[in-house]
Amino acid sequence: MDQLFEVLRDFVQLFERLDITYAVMGGLAVRTYGIPRPTYDVDFTIAVLESQWAEVVAAAQNLGYDVPEHQERGWLDQVAGMPMAKFHFFVEARKIDVDVFLAQSAFQSELLKRRRREQIHNLALWMVTPEDLLLLKLIASRPRDLADVADVLFTQGQLDLAYLRTWADQLRIRAELEKSLQSWSSP
User: Fold this and answer.
1) Helix, strand, coil share of the chain (percent; to 5)
2) How do 41-47 and 21-25 pair as beta strands?
3) Contact yes or no for 102/48 (Cβ under 8 A)
4) Roughly what angle, to the nearest 10 degrees, separates helices 161-171 and 174-185?
5) How many other C-beta atoms are found inside a 10 Å radius of the C-beta of residue 32?
6) What are the tens digits of pLDDT across the range 8-60?
7) Buried-most residue among 1, 66, 107, 172 (CB within 10 A)?
8) Strand partners, 125
9) What pLDDT does 154 receive?
10) 106: which residues sit within 8 A by CB, 6+ positions away?
């Protein structure tokens, strides 16, 4: 966790220094809102202007992070319809990925408005809410993500179901949400 935490700290400080709105998501958010599990990468959603992107890339490179060449030129990958950039940090023979999703949808904008200030070790940072984490995990719907959904539901208890259902409808994941909620509430 020490090296992963250092990577997390680097990017939190980078985004805050550049005045970029961000929220931590993924496995680190699961550790906060669910049952802690191993994670080997750091995930963010950020609101960044296209004109700021080169500054973000340069700042990450100055900290020792590698950036795929196509991303330096502005081309981004797409994951579940969301633009995403990947940064790499190498520690000995191990690579730590930093996945940065660019907020370009109404859902991502709402996610950033609802973010919460949380603490990981001695680092104060912005994190997605448990509800938004669930929605992101349901969008991905890999086996690990669905296990994370169950863990967060079990751990959090009371959630904003109206918010979850509204966005699940818009994101076209309502059936997946209802299935998860039914599994959680069933004995």
Assistant:
1) 50, 25, 25
2) antiparallel
3) yes
4) 140
5) 19
6) 999 999 999 999 999 999 999 999 999 888 888 999 999 998 788 889 999 99
7) 107
8) 118
9) 93
10) 170
Task: Give the alpha-carbon dihedral of 9, 12, 15, 21, to 10 degrees.
Answer: 180
Supply 81's token pair: 């319809």
* Residue-by-residue DSSP string for 64-113: T-B--HHHHTT--EEETTEEEEEEEEEETTEEEEEEEEE--SHHHHHHHH
Residue 1 is predicted with a pLDDT of 52
Residue 114 has pLDDT above 80, yes or no: yes
The pLDDT value given to residue 81: 75
Other CB atoms within 10 Å distance of the CB of residue 131? 20
The CA–CA distances, whole Å, from 149 to 46, 47, 66 equal 22, 25, 31
Query: Which CATH number among 1.10.443.10, 3.30.460.40, 3.20.20.140, 3.40.50.720 corresponds to the domain 2-185?
Result: 3.30.460.40
* E strands in the chain: 21-25, 41-47, 77-79, 82-91, 94-102, 116-120, 123-127
State the pLDDT at residue 46.
96
